Amino acid sequence: MRVLFTGATGVIGREAIPHLLAAGHDVLGVSRSAGDRAWLESIGATGLEVDLFDPASVGPAVSGVDAVAHFATAIPPRAQMPKLDAWQMNDRLRTEATAILVDAAVAKGIQRFVQESITFIYADAGDAWIDEDSAVAPTWDNLTSALDAEREVARFAEHGGHGVTLRMSGLYGPGRVSAEQIEAVAERRAPIVGSGDNFVSHLHIEDAGTSVAAALDAPTGTYNVSDDEPVTSRQDLEALARALGVKTPRRVPAPVARVAAGRATGLLTTSQRVSNRKFKTSTGWAPRYSSVLEGWVSVAAAWRST
Fold first, then answer.
1. How many other C-beta atoms are found inside a 10 Å radius of the C-beta of residue 169?
2. If we measure between CA atoms, which residue out of 265, 161, 140, 263 comes closest to residue 220?
3. Across-strand partners of 5?
């Protein structure tokens, strides 16, 4: 396929595009900087500069492609994450940009639209497994824009195209995706909040990349993309500390954490044991890293080497 990929040099794009090229797809990568577009050209993709908030810019970019993969994000630094206004650009990319891309894709008769979403939108399910039919109940206002993006994909499908939404679990891996978390754990600035018995689900960035290639063959629908073995938040942080060779994170009562992080504390205490069964069954995809307990060992080794 000829694929227009937004966010082409982001965390997921840098993993996904080499896999798409290896599978024989022709990739047009949207990126904001000349240096990043040069990198895209160097690996065999075509670099494009597109204003995703301008229909007049998006229309020509979509023309002639078979699929649109919308993965443009604007995730703020860790210290800014509790502030809702730090997420404004990310929200616009999920709402305004997705709507403009869907409008263009429908107008041009594009076959397929793949949209990045997140599993954080699910309600607390305790020890129960979460599938795509489980209740959604965003614990924080900035999560609702993911649902706006999903509705746009459903609108695309209503017009006869294949609309695929990938609800990805918490991303981690070498390089910038986990750099701030690693530093926070190493410096004991990332405590275990509450009991730490809530389940958290993860996805290594390498596995996120392969999932995008698999999504080009997936039937229309919404899919959880996660590793095979969710762990508790306590196991997660203790495993990272152990892999780094640093002290076990402190524990902080949830009410104390709420003073610092406000409603964002819900992201640290909600229990989400996410199942990836539907996506694996539908596409044959499987994660290389079945558990973050295994993945952190590899990530920590890369971190120490740099």
1. 24
2. 161
3. 29, 69
Type of residue numbered 203:
L
Distance CA(306)–CA(301), nearest Å, equals 9
Q: Which two tokens stand for residue 245?
A: 């060779």
3-state secondary structure of 265: helix
Surface-to-core class of residue 160, CB atoms within 10 Å of its CB (0-12 exposed, 13-18 middle, 19+ buried):
exposed
Q: If DSSP states are collapsed to H, E and C, what string results for 62-75?
A: HCCCCEEEECCCCC
> Alpha-carbon distance 29 to 36, whole Å?
10
Work out the angle between the directed axes of helices 98-108 and 144-158 (0-180°, nearest 10): 10
Q: Minimal CA–CA distance to 116: which of 229, 7, 39?
A: 7
Closest CA to 215 of 169, 166, 160, 171: 166
pLDDT 10s digits, 136-168? 998 877 889 999 999 999 999 999 999 999 999
What is the b/e burial string over 232-268, where b = at least 16 CB atoms within 10 angstroms of the residue's CB? bbbbbbbbbbebbeeeebeebeeeebbeebeebbbbb
Phi, psi torsion values for 240, nearest 5 degrees: -65, -45
- Mean pLDDT for 76-97 is 86
Q: What is the DSSP letter of 195?
A: T
d(CA 78, CA 56): 34
Is pTM, for the whole model, over 0.70?
Answer: yes
Gap between the Cα atoms of 37 and 145, Å rounded: 28
pLDDT at 140: 76
CB atoms within 10 A of CB 80: 11
CA-CA distance, 20 to 18, in Å (whole number)? Answer: 5
